[in-house]
Write a structure and sequence with these properties.
It comes from Desulforamulus hydrothermalis Lam5 = DSM 18033. It is found in: Cytoplasm. Pathway: Cell wall biogenesis; peptidoglycan biosynthesis. This is UDP-N-acetylglucosamine 1-carboxyvinyltransferase. This protein has 417 residues and is an alpha+beta fold. It has two domains: 203 residues, UDP-n-acetylglucosamine1-carboxyvinyl-transferase, Chain; 202 residues, Alpha-beta prism (UDP-n-acetylglucosamine1-carboxyvinyl-transferase, Chain), CATH 3.65.10.10. It contains 14 helices and 23 strands. The strands form six sheets. It has a four-stranded mixed sheet with strand order 21-22-1-23. A four-stranded mixed sheet has the order 2-14-16-15, covered by helices on one side. Helix 4 runs parallel beside helix 6, helix 5 packs parallel to helix 6 and helix 10 runs parallel beside helix 12. The protein is elongated.
Length: 417
């Protein structure tokens, strides 16, 4: 297993480019299963989760070529077949093949997906929505089976907004007969990107980005070339890297509107943020100030940025309160921050963070993707050296993050155990 050895204390300075969005790439790659032709997806990040999705597409009969950051997917000869537990457990987003396979072939059998253990992410909203479209769903021995002679459009109302369920039902609905309406849909930018991709293939979808999405069923979808949107979570992580090191970092290839919650909070804690057309510049201004954070569905503060923001607040002046409303197990990084000298008190879904003057190096472990990124940020601001293990989690969402940060002045070495 590999580890990061990180020597803190250096100010990061320079320009760093965000990759294409992982959370947009995965549903778009799954959506290629709806096409009877060849789709070319550009600005795809070379991440572990993306390679797993490529493996899954190949398993189903697709022919894929991944060169640079462009993946070409030929789904002409795809067939719906049982997907093994070993493959499904590699990634949570593997469940996104459920909607497109059911929509195109009328049957699908998959194992329950894996992914980061940050809390329960039940499939019940997926099942209820697919059942409303006319699918018969059964769960036995850890497998999900869904079948339908022909999906039929209907009105679906989510109890709570769900990104994965919204994406799955969008993909299932494009080939259904009639009109499908999804109410209380998730509004994330990645869902808008999926709509744009599907519409370019010939789908008829309106409303992504709002809480009501309307889908007019079509008979077939064709080939398309599409460029994935920039990764707002990666960009936000780089912004905090500049702030926590009192540096001067410009993050290029971003959509600033997608970063509004992060920009607002960074300014609140005393960081200077300059916004351009497709870039943001972050400059540290000395002592950071405490701030309260509450994670919410988009356009609120993203849960995927909560650990990174907590890292920043551990060295802010005063007491901050962080409330996690999305995932119940998303405070696993707290114990690791404490190893580095952070003063954090947990009570239920709330963390009280009392800022300290300086974090110290320690041996810590990444419990999940974003926790791992947050520990890198904490180590960059800490004294002496930090050894961070379980970095395979980080590779799921950040493409060679150590090379990017070293180019800005950090000292991070990837080593074998």
């Amino acid at each position: 297993m590999e580890k990061f050895v990180i020597v803190g204390g250096n100010r990061l300075k320079g320009t760093i480019k965000a990759n294409g969005s992982k959370n947009a790439s995965l549903p778009i790659l799954a959506a290629t299963l709806l096409s009877g032709g060849i789709c070319t997806i550009q600005q795809v990040p070379r991440l572990r989760d993306v390679f797993v999705m490529q493996e899954l597409l190949n398993y189903l009969g697709a022919k894929t070529v991944f060169e640079g950051n462009t993946m070409t997917v030929d789904c002409t000869y795809v067939q719906s077949q049982e997907i093994s537990e070993d493959l499904m457990r590699k990634m949570r987003a593997s469940n996104l093949v459920l909607g497109p396979l059911l929509g195109r072939f009328g049957n699908v059998k998959i194992s329950y997906p894996g992914g980061c253990n940050i809390g329960s992410r039940p499939m019940n909203l997926h099942f209820k929505g697919l059942a409303a479209l006319g699918a018969k769903i059964s769960e036995r021995f850890g497998y999900i089976t869904a079948s339908a002679n022909q999906l039929a459009g209907t009105v679906i109302h989510f109890d709570v907004p769900s990104v994965g369920a919204t994406e799955n039902l969008m993909m299932a609905g494009v080939l259904a007969q009639g009109t499908t309406v999804i109410r209380n849909a998730a509004k994330e930018p990645e869902i808008v990107d999926l709509q744009n991709f599907l519409n370019a293939m010939g789908a008829k979808i309106v409303g992504a980005g709002t809480d009501v999405i309307r889908i007019e069923g079509v008979k077939e979808l064709g080939s398309v070339t599409h460029t994935v949107i920039p990764d707002r979570i990666e960009a936000g992580t780089h912004m905090i890297a500049g702030a926590i090191t009192q540096g001067d970092v410009t993050v290029a290839n971003v959509i600033p509107e997608h970063l509004d919650p992060v920009i607002y909070k960074l300014r609140e804690v005393g960081v200077t943020v300059e916004v351009g057309e497709d870039w943001v510049r972050v400059q540290g201004n000395g002592q950071l100030k405490a701030a309260d954070i509450k994670t919410m569905p988009y356009p609120g503060f993203p849960t995927d940025m909560q650990p990174q923001m907590m890292a920043l607040l551990t060295v802010a002046d005063g007491t901050s309160v962080i409330t996690e409303t999305i995932f119940e197990n998303r405070f696993k990084h707290v114990s690791e921050f404490r190893r580095m000298g952070a003063d954090i008190y947990l009570e239920g879904h709330t963390a009280v963070v009392k800022g300290v003057k300086r974090l110290t190096g320690a041996c810590v472990e990444a419990s999940d993707l974003r926790a791992g990124a947050a520990l890198i940020l904490a180590a960059l601001a800490g004294e002496d050296g930090t050894v961070l293990s379980n970095i395979e989690h980080i590779d799921r969402g950040y493409e060679r993050i150590e090379k990017k940060y070293n180019a800005l002045g950090a000292r991070i070495i990837r080593v074998n155990s």
